[in-house]
Amino acid sequence: MLYESIRVAIDAGADAAAPVATIMLNRPDKLNSFTRAMHRELAAALDEVTASQARALVLTGAGRGFCAGQDLADLDLAPGASTDLGALLDEHFNPLIRRLQALPMPVVAAVNGTAAGAGANLALACDIVIAARSASFIQAFVKIGLAPDSGGTWFLPQRVGTARALGLAMTGERLGAEQAESWGLVWQVVDDAQLPQAAAELAARLARQPTRALVATRTALRAAATHTLDQQLDLERDLQRDLGTSHDYAEGVRAFVEKRAPRFEGR
User: Fold this and answer.
1) How far apart (Å, rounded) are the C-alpha atoms in residues 41 and 10?
2) Does the predicted TM-score (pTM) go above 0.70?
3) CA–CA distance from 254 to each of 18, 248, 263 (Å)?
4) Which pick of 18, 22, 59, 144 has the fewest CB atoms within 10 Å?
5) Which of 36, 43, 28, 116 is nearest to 73 (CA)?
6) Quick check: 235 and 223 in contact, CB under 8 A?
7) Which letter does DSSP use for residue 145 in this model?
8) Residue 109, helix vs strand vs coil
9) What is the per-residue pLDDT across 88-105, written as a single tens digit (0 to 9) for each?
10) Which long-range contacts (CB under 8 A, 24 or more apart) does 40-44 make?
11) Which of 81-95, 169-183, 229-243 comes out lowest in average pLDDT?
12) Residue 194 phi, psi (nearest 5)
């Protein structure tokens, strides 16, 4: 597919068995804000990445912003007109968030500037967030009379607690990258110039790991928020039963016995 508002690359790098995919939002003049066309391209790109057998994905933005959320110019804002925002979420944003959460590989968000509104929550939907030192996160919804969407009301309290989530959502204040790191909203902050390399190195490292085990770990940690201990113990049992039959588990055990580095294949 020919993409206009995003870029897609799949790079085997130094390890052909552990390719890394990169999706870059590419509307820098609009701070990579969402349009319906971009959503359609993202859906196709995620299909392409999944089919490619990539074992990690980096999601980032072109220019000085990661993503400014919905492009309001793409909505029908003529006098007297209104847009069914619920339909917009059902058709585009919610499927995107669910898709990112369910990808069969780890996803790294490299936040290179402003992440506002749905753009902030897009980053939080990824597994690990690395932010440039100049990056910021803004729950901008309240500034146009809306409540957070794209999973924001779930991700925020999960990561920073209810008090801070309410403060961010109700004030719409900018949260700088270093404070976001100290609050546990992101994994790591790096100097701006180092962000592409840091994200690429992390993704390459994850791509060499036992992919099924990483996905199972993600599944278990997310389920813990709503599970009782008994439910979580049962889930851990089921996941371990499945992973115990995998190629990578057998390889990991052999490598341990043979005192060598394991060569995981993601299966």
Assistant:
1) 16
2) yes
3) 20, 10, 10
4) 144
5) 36
6) yes
7) T
8) strand
9) 999 999 999 999 999 999
10) 41/1, 41/3, 41/4, 41/5, 41/6, 42/6, 42/96, 43/95, 43/96, 43/99, 44/1, 44/3
11) 81-95
12) -90, -10
Q: Name residue, tokens 């089921």.
A: 238
Amino acid at 75: L
Q: Assess contact for 118 and 34: CB atoms under 8 A.
A: yes
Interhelix angle for 162-171 vs 152-160, to 10°? Answer: 130
Q: What share of the chain is helix, strand, coil (3-state, %, to 5)?
A: 50, 15, 35
**What is the rounded CA–CA span in Å between residue 191 and residue 179?**
15
Q: In which region does residue 94 sit, left (phi positive, over 0), alpha (psi from -120 to 50) or beta (all else)?
A: alpha
CA-to-CA distance for 224 and 25, rounded, in angstroms? 32
| Joined tokens for residue 81 | 């007109």
